[in-house]
Specification:
Layout lengths: L2 E5 H11 L4 E4 L6 H7 L6 E4 L3 H14 L3 E6 H17 L5 E7 L12 H8 L3 E2 L4 H18 L3 E6 H4 L2 E5 L15 H4 L3 H22 L6 E3 L2 E9 H10 L3 E6 L1 E3 L3 H10 L2 E5 L5 H8 L18 H7 L25 H11 L3 E3 L16 E3 L5 H13 L7 E6 H17 L4 E7 L28 H8 L3 E6 L3 H12 L4 E7 L12 E5 L18 E3 L5 E3 L9 H5 L5 E5 L1
Parallel strand pairs: 2-3, 2-4, 4-5, 5-7, 6-7, 10-11, 10-13, 14-15, 14-16, 16-17, 17-19, 18-19
Antiparallel strand pairs: 1-8, 6-12, 9-11, 20-23, 21-22
Length: about 575
C-alpha cells in the first residue's frame, strides 16, 4: 500500500501493470507519450512503438483475441487513424481485456484540433471511462479491463492534457495477472464479414443498454449531495474545477461517461433546483440529457472551445468578478526551432529559393512562421505528400515547380510511405523532402522503425529509407547533409525541375538527442561584420544584433552547427574548438 506522487500518464501505466496487462502498443503523441515511456519500465509488459496508431490498435486487438489483456495508447487525433479497427472490434468484442487510452487536448497545446473522443466513442459504440485525478487514472484503467471482459467490449479510457501532465498521490497495489483466456476459433465473433457483423451489431446495442442500466449502480458514478439549490453534472478534470469553485454545491460525478446512466441522472436532476452540465469541449452529456426532457444549462453559458477552469464557473454561475491583474508586459515568445536544428538550415535554403512547402506534423511545422515562412499547409500525419500530389493533379506539373513536400522520418514511417506510393502509382510529379533527424522529435525523442532501436531498448535492423523509396518506385533519391548549404541548394534546384517524382533526404540528427557531442562553437568577429543581416535571417535564437548593428553569438546556446557561418559572405563568423 505504498503511496507515490505520479503524473496522470504515469498512473495509467501503473494501472496497466497492476491489471496484468501483457501487451502495450502505441505511437507517441502529446499528451499521451509518457504512458508508454512508463509502461516500458515494467519488464513484465511487452511494450512497443508501432509505426502508427492503426497498427498499435491492431496489435492490441491481436493480443486480446489470443487471450491476454492488452492496451493501445494514443492522442485524440491518433484515434482517427485507429478508428477503422476500433469501429470493427466494437462489433467483434474481446477475449482478453482490451483498453484504448485516448488523450484529448482541450486548449490545443500540441494538436491541430480539439476533437472530443467521446463523440468517436458514441459513433463506435464503445464505452468510455474518464478519470479526474492520478489515483482514478490508475484505478479506472484496472476497472476498464474488468468491464471489457465482463461486457465483451473494448473500453476507452479518456484523459486530457491537464490530467495527463498533472501530479497527484497514488496508492500502489500488487500486480495481479488473470489466467490467459483460452482461444477458441469463432469466426462468427471475430470475422467481420457482413453476415456476421449484422448479428454482432444487435449484440452491441444490447450491450450498451445493459451497461447504461448497470451504470446507475456503479461506484464510479456517484451523487455528492450538499446544497441542492445548485447541481452540477461533471466528469474528468472538469469535476475538480466544480469542487474548487462550488465546494458546497451538489454534484453528480460521472466516471463512466458513455453510455450515460439515465435513471441516475434523472434522479439527481429531481433533487436540485438548477442543473448545470459542466463538460469540456462538445455538449455530449448536455445533448443527451436535454433529449430526455431534463431541464439543464450548459453551453448557453459555457464555451465549446479550450480548457475550462474554476474561474469560468465563478463568472458564469456565481456571477463573481474574478480578480484580473494587468498582464505583465513581456516580449512575445512564439515557438521557434532550437539552435542548431537541421530543419532551420533546410528552410533557409527553401526560403532563399522562394519555394513553398506542403507541411506535415512535427517540429518542422514551425517553418510556417517568420522569419522562415516556408510551410504553407499542415493537415495531418502524412498529408504533405498527398497534398502536393493533389496540387499537381489539379494545376499541372508547372504549378508545383516552386513547391516541395516536407515530412519527418518518423512521420514518413507513420503514413508518409502510403502517400509516396500513391504519388508514384498515379504517375505524379513533385519533390518530397524527408527531413531525417533520426528521431520522433516533437514528442520527446522516441525511436521508430528507421532508428534501429525499439521502445524496450533492443537494437534491431533499421528501415533503410532511401532503399524503401527506391523499392516504391522512386528513381531519383538523393541524400544530403542538411547543413551543406551549397549542395542542398544545388540538389533542390535540380530535383524540383524534374517532371517525375523525386525524394531528397536531408540527414542530420536532432541537436537534442542524447549522446550528441558538440566540439565547436561559432564566434562572430565584429571588425569583419558588414551588418548585412544574412546570418540573422534563419532566426537562430543564439544570434542577436547589437546596438551598433553587428552580430553577437550566445556561446551558451550555440552548438556550432555552422549555418550562420555558411551564410556569411565576409568571413565574419568562424568556428572554434571547445
Amino acid at each position: 500500500m505504498e503511496k507515490k506522487i505520479m503524473l496522470g500518464n504515469e498512473a495509467i501505466a501503473r494501472g496497466a501493470f497492476e491489471a496484468g496487462v501483457k501487451v502495450s502498443a502505441a505511437y507517441p503523441g502529446t499528451p499521451s507519450t509518457e504512458i508508454s515511456e512508463n509502461i516500458v519500465k515494467y519488464p513484465e509488459i511487452y511494450a512497443e512503438w508501432s509505426p502508427n496508431e492503426k497498427v498499435a490498435m491492431e496489435v492490441a486487438i491481436g493480443a486480446s483475441i489470443s487471450g491476454v489483456r492488452a492496451m493501445a495508447s494514443m492522442k485524440h487525433v491518433g484515434v482517427n487513424v485507429a478508428s477503422d479497427p476500433l469501429y470493427t472490434i466494437s462489433y467483434g468484442g474481446v477475449n482478453g481485456g482490451l483498453v484504448l487510452v485516448a488523450a484529448d487536448d482541450p486548449g490545443l497545446y500540441s494538436s491541430q484540433n480539439e476533437q472530443d473522443t467521446r463523440c468517436v466513442a458514441r459513433a463506435a459504440m464503445v464505452p468510455v471511462l474518464e478519470p479526474s485525478d492520478s489515483q482514478e487514472a490508475k484505478d479506472f484503467v484496472k476497472l476498464a479491463f474488468e468491464l471489457s471482459e465482463q461486457y465483451d467490449t473494448p473500453v476507452i479510457v479518456r484523459t486530457t492534457t491537464r490530467l495527463s501532465h498533472s501530479q497527484g498521490p497514488v496508492t500502489l497495489c500488487d500486480r495481479v495477472v488473470p489466467e490467459d483466456k483460452v482461444y477458441e476459433r469463432n469466426p462468427a465473433k471475430f470475422v467481420m464479414m457482413p453476415g456476421n457483423a449484422k448479428g454482432r451489431h444487435v449484440f452491441v446495442e444490447q450491450r450498451l443498454k445493459q451497461m447504461a442500466a448497470d451504470a446507475c449502480d456503479m461506484a464510479i458514478n456517484r451523487m455528492e449531495l450538499k446544497d441542492t439549490k445548485i447541481g452540477f453534472i461533471a466528469s474528468g478534470i472538469a469535476y475538480q474545477y466544480v469542487k474548487e469553485a462550488c465546494p458546497d454545491a451538489s454534484v453528480l460525478k460521472l466516471g463512466l461517461v458513455h453510455p450515460l446512466p439515465r435513471k441516475l441522472i434523472e434522479e439527481f436532476a429531481k433533487k436540485v433546483d438548477t442543473l448545470y452540465i459542466f463538460e469540456e469541449l462538445e455538449p455530449v452529456f448536455e445533448e443527451q440529457i436535454k433529449s430526455w426532457g431534463i431541464s439543464c444549462i450548459g453551453k448557453e453559458i459555457f464555451t465549446v472551445q479550450g480548457e475550462y477552469s474554476a474561474n469560468m464557473i465563478r463568472k458564469a454561475v456565481l456571477k463573481q468578478e474574478t480578480e484580473s491583474k494587468a498582464p505583465v508586459q513581456v516580449p512575445a515568445r512564439p515557438p521557434i526551432l532550437c539552435p542548431g536544428c537541421p530543419h532551420r538550415s533546410v528552410y533557409s535554403v527553401l526560403n532563399k529559393l522562394k519555394i513553398h512547402a506542403a507541411g506535415d506534423i512535427g517540429c518542422y511545422t514551425l517553418g510556417a512562421v517568420a522569419p522562415l515562412s516556408v510551410v504553407d499547409t499542415t493537415v495531418c500525419m502524412g498529408a504533405s505528400i498527398s497534398t502536393l500530389h493533389g496540387m499537381e493533379k489539379a494545376k499541372g506539373k508547372d504549378y508545383i515547380k516552386n513547391w516541395v513536400a516536407v515530412i519527418g522520418d518518423s512521420t514518413f514511417m507513420h503514413t508518409g510511405v502510403n502517400s509516396l506510393m500513391n504519388m508514384v502509382y498515379n504517375q505524379g510529379t513533385g519533390t518530397v523532402m524527408i527531413l531525417d533527424n533520426s528521431t520522433t522529435g516533437m514528442t520527446g525523442h522516441q525511436d521508430h522503425a528507421a532508428t534501429g532501436k525499439t521502445l524496450m531498448g533492443e537494437v534491431v535492423p533499421a528501415i533503410d529509407i532511401p532503399n524503401l523509396c527506391k523499392a516504391i518506385g522512386v528513381k531519383n533519391v538523393v541524400e544530403v547533409n542538411a547543413f551543406d548549404l551549397v549542395t542542398l541548394e544545388k540538389v533542390i534546384r535540380e530535383e524540383v525541375a524534374k517532371d517525375e517524382v523525386s525524394v531528397i533526404i536531408t540527414k542530420s540528427p536532432c541537436v537534442l538527442l542524447k549522446g550528441q557531442k558538440f566540439t565547436k562553437k561559432c564566434v562572430a568577429e565584429a571588425d569583419k561584420c558588414k551588418k548585412c543581416g544574412a546570418c540573422l535571417r534563419p532566426g537562430c535564437p543564439a544570434l542577436t544584433k547589437k546596438a551598433d548593428g553587428t552580430v553577437a553569438i550566445d556561446a551558451t546556446m550555440c552548438n556550432g552547427c555552422g549555418l550562420c557561418m555558411g551564410l556569411c559572405k565576409f568571413g565574419a563568423i568562424s568556428q572554434v574548438e571547445v
